[in-house]
Amino acid sequence: MKVVGIILLLSLTFSVKSQTLEESLTPICNQLDTAKTLNELMFISASFDMVTTKFPEELMSNYYSALSKAFVSYMELNTEKRDLYIDSGDKYFAKVKLLSPENEETYILAALLANARLSVDGGSRWKVYGEIFDKNIESAKAINPNNPRIYYLKGAAVFNTPKMFGGGAKKALEFFVKAKELFTAQVKTSVMTPCWGENRNNNYLLQCAE
Fold this sequence. Notes:
By secondary structure, the chain is an all-alpha fold. The protein is built from ten helices and no strands. It has helices at 3-16, 21-32, 38-54, 59-75, 79-99, 104-120, 122-143, 148-159, 169-185, 198-209. α4 (59-75) runs antiparallel to α5, α6 packs antiparallel against α7 and α6 runs parallel beside α8 (148-159). The longest helix has 22 residues, at 122-143. It starts with a helix and ends with a helix.
């Protein structure tokens, strides 16, 4: 299905059904952490954008739109498109930061977007975006050191750093193990509180074991 067709279908769906923000987000979020292909993520991202169109001033609608753009950028192979997705994510993130600037999840989202930008061209971007990533991770940790997404993102960053620069699976493993412990202890209430990352962290643990 073409993206235009997806958007039209979603537009019709949201215009017909009167839902709360939580009701609109829940079925989409249930797919977010298990999506495995670029097309799946693009559909999910377009779905979040339609929710944000309906709830433009709400924190969590903008949060998930920004988050999904980062995920799409990681899957996209075209470098120019990857940056465009992150550009779009940054626009939604600006609203998130405006609505909730001193929030651990805001800092974590900022770190994710910085890492997505870095991963497009690590050779030339590591200094600028690596520092932004580290700064936001530390800010999130200062607020809540038991947030599992802190360690998941740190582990992913180390995992994807070349061994010659201090990265690799062996050094990343401790972060994924820590994240798993915290994900297990995390109380999941609703999609209005971020709870993504557990499946992604488990996938990295499997890769570390190979």
